Amino acid sequence: MASTAAGKQRIPKVAKVKNKAPAEVQITAEQLLREAKERELELLPPPPKQKITDKEELNDYKLRKRKGFEDNIRKNRTVISNWIKYAQWEESLQEIQRARSIYERALDVDHRNITLWLKYAEMEMKSRQVNHARNIWDRAITILPRVNQFWYKYTYMEEMLGNVAGCRQVFERWMEWEPDEQAWHSYINFELRYKEVDKARTIYERFVIVHPEVKNWIKYARFEEKHGYVAHSRKVYERSVEFFGEEHVDENLFVAFARFEETQKEFERVRVIYKYALDRIPKQQAQELFKNYTMFEKKFGDRRGIEDVIVSKRRFQYEEEVKANPHNYDAWFDYLRLVESDADPDTVREVYERAIANTPPIPEKRHWRRYIYLWINYALYEELEVKDPERTRQVYAACVDLIPHKKFTFAKIWLLYAQFEIRQKNLQGARKIMGLAIGKCPKNKLLKGYIELELQLREFDRCRKLYQKYLEFNPENCTTWIKFAELETILGDVDRARAIFELAIGQPRLDMPEVLWKSYIDFEIEQEEFGNTRNLYKRLLQRTQHVKVWISYAKFELSIDSDERLQKCRQIFEEANKGMRSCEEKEERLMLLESWREFEREFGSDSSRERVRKLLPEKVKKRRKLTAEDGSDAGWEEYYDYIFPEDAANQPNLKLLAMARMWKRQQAESEDVAADQPTEPQTQLSSSPPSPSSAQEAEEAPDKQLQTESGRESQTDTDHQEELKEELKEELKEEHDDQEEEGKNNNNQEEEHDDRDDSSSSSSSSSSESEEEEEDGAKKKEENNTGED
């Protein structure tokens, strides 16, 4: 029975969550993990320490530990770390025999594990079992002869024990396997530690045969040189040259051979070696060799001869490069730099003429950018190095004639040409050049350069004419208008500068109008023409309602030292707020209100601060539907929106008002029924607010019913009115909280709302009335409700 009763017991229902909006403080998985780490929830306390007092407890402890190790090994025999831990534990108990047995069992499982062999041998060495350690090393190098670590450990142990012969024997066994270079060097260093130079030489002989590389032959020769065997060292170098022959010759070998002979003061032999190497090694592979040969000749040869050799060598290289690609202008630059450093002007001119003859094949500016610098360097060389102004003028003229100015031009050439004429004190010629440039190919850079030139010469009338030409050429350039006005301001002609600004802001197209307006406003502020500045701000606000313009206008009024500055600044903020109510960018409107709040915080009163605070919006998270490029549904996106109190006041919640009116009507009817029939129970009417469907019926009631309803409502006592106000406040608060949930379920509510409208319209007694009468009835209901409140 008990079980039956338990089976029939009902499972409690899960409580439904009414508010499904996300919480303000979100908890992430990262935060949960961090809190668990900080509180150390997953850390287990260490096992309690156990004190062993007698031999029996020790044996029990050993038995438990061994059983645990054996169980781990039995579970997975291939995990070598379990074997090593087991053996090290036995070793810590001085059970060497048991540890040795464990290592042997582990080697039966995996005899190719390097760590296992090393731990085994180290255990034997720690316990001073030398013969056991030798046996282990022998077995290891026999099974794994390519593991160099075994050989190094074995030889080190033998040498530490003083067994030099045994160590040499191990090295010989190792060298039979022809290991890498470091092993041979270890063997050689071992012999040198015991002053066995002859044996080291023998090892070197075997070494250069096993590893026949140039660096090993050089090491062999330096070994002989270090120990004073000069003849043997020279013989090693000669053997190495014969060994590699002419096919596999290397410049490093000859460089080392030449340096050796140089230390022996054999300069003729050094020269012969360098010449022999240069004749047999390709030029591109002998850069280091040629460098060392040059350094040698600088030390012990003729200076002029050395320079001629170097220049001729490099000139030959550059000639090969420019022959392979005549349009490689970088190679021409290097070649000309070399020739200019050590050649007569005629030779340099010849190279320049050859270089500039290679014009780019395509008339596009990107192909001419590097080429044009050949002409610039040519002209500068003639002017600065040769001091020939007439030839420089010819170079500039030829360059200007060569450039296809109808397609593109280079303002740098024209400006350098004009500056050259000025340095030659030919001002009229410079002006002709700039005029020709502007006539052929007007460019911003050319006009700016010409204006700067005239400004340096203090020719302000010419600057005005040039600015006029510049603005006729490019009237959209705001920088030019600003510079022109600044020039007039500097010259003291304020009216002219103001006229220029007026012309500028009247242009139909400008590249940076905001910069131009700001400059104009700053100009008027500097002139302390505050009335003109206000007019400029108003004109600018007629064109744009940007928030930064309003803020700048307010700050301007605040900066003026007058008694009404605070009032004017506050008035500007109010006008801006009114003007930006229809602005779609709510962030800009918020920026304006925040700036207004900062102003009131510093200069306003408590009432003004409270007023601005009420204007600040509320930040609300909403969702909107996304659509992909192909028109398909891409899901929902969360975004933040700002709800301003002024906008919310213009859009009353009609649903809430209708519910409140319906409730008040039911309260009035219940009072009437109670007065007519006092004996009947009053349980038919509810004091709670009606449902949304009844609210829809209330909105569709006729005008006559509204009038009777308002008459009955006027007869209710004060207690009902107070309760109504409290309920309205609660409903407004609940409606505000449910705005986000309504946004999420918007589609479902619209469908339900349509169904309710259909059902209410079919059951309403006023379905035959027109739409105009319904609108009039709704307006009268709102007016009556407003009067009662």
Automatic annotation (TrEMBL):
Residues 455-562 form the Pre-mRNA-splicing factor Syf1-like N-terminal HAT-repeats domain. Residues 710-736, 777-789 have a biased composition (Basic and acidic residues). This is Crooked neck-like protein 1. Residues 81-360 form the Pre-mRNA-splicing factor Syf1/CRNKL1-like C-terminal HAT-repeats domain. GO terms for cellular component: nuclear speck; post-mRNA release spliceosomal complex; precatalytic spliceosome; Prp19 complex; U2-type catalytic step 2 spliceosome. Residues 677-696 have a biased composition (Low complexity). InterPro entries: HAT (IPR003107), HAT_Syf1-like_N (IPR055433), HAT_Syf1_CNRKL1_C (IPR055430), Syf1-like (IPR045075), TPR-like_helical_dom_sf (IPR011990). Keywords: mRNA processing, mRNA splicing, Nucleus, Phosphoprotein, Repeat, Spliceosome. It is found in: Nucleus speckle. Belongs to the crooked-neck family. Transmembrane segments: none annotated. It holds the Pfam family HAT_Syf1_CNRKL1_N. The lineage of its organism: Eukaryota, Metazoa, Chordata, Craniata, Vertebrata. Residues 668-789 are annotated as: Disordered. GO terms for biological process: spliceosomal complex assembly. SMART domains: HAT (SM00386). Involved in pre-mRNA splicing process. As a component of the minor spliceosome, involved in the splicing of U12-type introns in pre-mRNAs. The keyword Repeat applies.
